[in-house]
């Protein structure tokens, strides 16, 4: 079912990704096949 919420941009929902302290996700550009979006978990490291 599709619901129009009136947003001008697409929305990406990421589920099932576990992040730790100082982790963040980097969401890439939409790829072919349609609907595939790369998600990379990155961690900050301070020394």
From TrEMBL:
Pfam families linked:
EutA
Please indicate which superkingdom the organism of origin belongs to: Bacteria
- Which InterPro entries has this protein been placed in? EutA
Its protein name is Ethanolamine ammonia-lyase reactivating factor EutA
Record the organism.
Nocardioides panacis
């Amino acid at each position: 079912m599709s619901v129009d919420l009136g947003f001008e941009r697409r929305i990406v929902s990421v589920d099932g990704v576990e992040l730790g302290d100082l982790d963040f996700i980097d969401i890439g550009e939409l790829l072919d096949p349609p609907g595939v979006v790369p998600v990379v978990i990155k961690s900050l490291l301070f020394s």
